[in-house]
Amino acid sequence: MSASRLLTACLALLLGGACASTPKPAPTPPPAESAATSTPAPTESAPTPGAARPSEPATSGGAQVVKTVPAPSATPSVEPSPAPPRPQATGARGDFERAVEIARRGELEAAERGLEALLEANPKLDYAWTNLGVLRERKGKPEEAERAYRKALELKPEQESAWDFLTRLYCRTGRASRIEAELRQKLEAKADSASMRTSLALALLHQQKLESAATEAKRALKVEERYVKAMQVLAQVYYREKKFELARMVLENARAIDTQDAATHNALGLVQLALKARPLALESFKQAAQLRPDFAEARNNFGAMLNEAQDYPAAITELEAAVRSAPDFASARLNLGNAYRGTGDFVRAKDEYGQVIKLQPQLADTYFNLAILYLDLEPQGMDTLERFKAAITWFEQYKGKGGKDERVEQYVKDAQKGIDKEERRREREKRDQLRKAQKAEEDRKKAEEEAKQAQQAAPSPSEPATATATPDKTSTPPSTPSATPTPGSGKLTSDDK
């Protein structure tokens, strides 16, 4: 693999795993939020190509991290607690917890069936409705998810998680202003609801109304000063405003309040990256992933940093887990393709990039990575000329999607050089084969001529032996017999006796 050609990767943050990576090493965050998230919502908008601004190239090859700004949208996570209040039977709590555990293992179908059965017997379990909404959203059923969230809010109007997930769903599906209006109306009657005010701040954040978002988050904190979700939203505002130290302080306070909140660790990791504290960021992402194994964004972030460190096997473990939790998480699939490429696995890398194209066909960086894949790896059985031509085709598609990476021109030249070199090699091979064939023909003709000459020189076995004179029976034999040579001696013998 060429050390000069680097993969792109994405870090997606909880509360908005936006990712619009460019094929540059160690880029800085884009100036504004892009809408690519890990959610399965089919109406999610595509990211702005090339939003990230690159820095100087790294000196070593492999995958690198593309950081993204925290945004309101994120893959919903199954809430493990609190357990259903006042279960009608001992079995209800156990059924609920089993369904949550199954969901966390990524067995969405089985978990959905378990929750549906539980709710059929216990229709007033508000947290079960919220979790059912999460599962349906992950499976790409946003309308069914919304109905489940609203059912939970019907049963418990101020349920924190239901408002949080419903708000994120509306933001991901382009309806942030609608959920903002609904929340404002609700707050007129319930001004002291920290959960609804935090959700309002989230909707405002998604619309880039940073000052208003900060105001609402602070109002929520006045109602409940240790409210961690409001701290997370406020930290995101500071992050967007590039007030990284303020964001770090807020998140560290949130972490001190609840050390087990995976979202805080994940958000803090991104802030630490902005502050160039990479070892701390790596540890924060790792902690978030360990606290919540189904937290797709955290595992994607951790995997992307492992890609950057060229620890591809470990990265694959994290990124495969992210994709299992959120199959439509395009950023995680892009990073996973990069990890496969890092191990030299052409087929699996190509398959993952293909999945990203299906999810976000306008994401230019995928085409860039495919071009580099064909340029750098040499899969068994693939024709070399076809491989280089495919690389050029993918680069052309990258530019057609708005990609503006300045290295493309040189990479296309590299591919063309590869084509020219292969064509010259084949021409030399063809000439060598022709010379060998001519020499073999000449040798064959010469051998045939020599064999023919040898055959002509040798006596034919069918010809009679040379006639020998025989004595005339009528003539008188000589009186003295003639001397006869001894066979093989060449000399006459004599009697020495």
UniProtKB/TrEMBL annotation:
Region (Disordered): 18-94, 418-497
Domain of life of the organism encoding this protein: Bacteria
Name of the molecule in the record: Tetratricopeptide repeat protein
InterPro entries: OGT, TPR-like_helical_dom_sf, TPR_rpt
PROSITE patterns: PROKAR_LIPOPROTEIN, TPR, TPR_REGION
N-terminal signal peptide: 1-20
UniProt entry tagged with the keyword Signal: yes
Record PANTHER family: UDP-N-ACETYLGLUCOSAMINE--PEPTIDE N-ACETYLGLUCOSAMINYLTRANSFERASE 110 KDA SUBUNIT (PTHR44366:SF1)
Gene3D superfamilies, alphabetized: Tetratricopeptide repeat domain
The keyword Signal is annotated on this UniProt entry: yes
Positions annotated as TPR repeat: 126-159, 262-295, 330-363
Basic and acidic residues: compositionally biased ranges: 418-452
Entry coiled-coil feature ranges: none
Keyword vocabulary terms for this entry: Signal, TPR repeat
Bias kind Low complexity: ranges: 33-52, 453-489
